[in-house]
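At this stage, I put together a protein sequence along with its fold in token form, as given directly below:
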Amino acid sequence: MKKYIFKRLLSSLLVLLGVVTITFFISRVIPSNPATKWAGTRATEEQLAAAREELGLDDPLPVQYINYLKDLLHGDLGINYSTRQPVSLELATYVPATVELVLLAFVLAIIIGIPLGIYSAKKKNRLLDHSVRFFSIGAVSLPSFWVALFLQLVFYKALNLLPIGGQLSAMATIFNEKPHVTGLLLLDCLLTGEFSLFLDALQHIILPCITVSLYPIGLVARMTRSALLEILGEDYITAGRSYGLTEFKMLWKYALKNSLGATATDVALSMGYTLTNTFLVESIFSWPGIGSYISTAVTTLNFPAIMGVTIFGACCYILLNLLADLIIALDPRVRL
């Protein structure tokens, strides 16, 4: 197992180096003028020359690449051209809100998706199975921005049950100080005893959480169903039924355990995808996460911020993929 983990870590580092290399050279090839963004649109030639020297843009491209790798090894992702703040510090501010949203969405995906997949496989080609498959395909196929706008129209405009966006209401931010312990607002409110603030934050996260969770719910349900249909035809399932084991025990204890490998891989990869692709949902709901940060960076061609988010996303994919591989490797039938 140790040798397997070492090989996976080594290959992950090579993948990360490839991502860093590609994004670095693409950011240098795209026509832009970082010195102008740094010094201002009305800067003189002397000020632009000083900005280029300060940013290291006068160095040859290989030298810039080596310097960037050296800074990266020390945790330096560069400086945001617009705010002149370190990108790493800005990511530390924006990432927790997105992580909280995605974690809650995937808790919903597991709680809802796995039972749907199980009972869909159990009732194959019956009304429940057809309904679950229809729901799963719809959940995976519907555009997230359309779902977000539809939920706002129904629950805010028509029913007036939930807020339209934001992480907290204006009144809550005026009369309460936002707690900072872990960076996850709901957890911080519970840890500090701010229960009124917790309820307010919970109301605000419901609609974006439902929007983000639809895709993984559909994915988990379909993957669980597909894996279970294959396993339910195995000889040991037939033998267990012949021994008089209950259908509930066969499904939840034996069949489900052997179907989680493929499901874990897809859940982990979809979680990495969702972490860095929530910008539409966060923009619609005014959610202060990494999605709104990267959308601003893209529209202003702020390459240090774009590269910082890209590297963060690559690290998430690598770590989650490694976690899925380790879960699969726990199966004694899998050869490492």
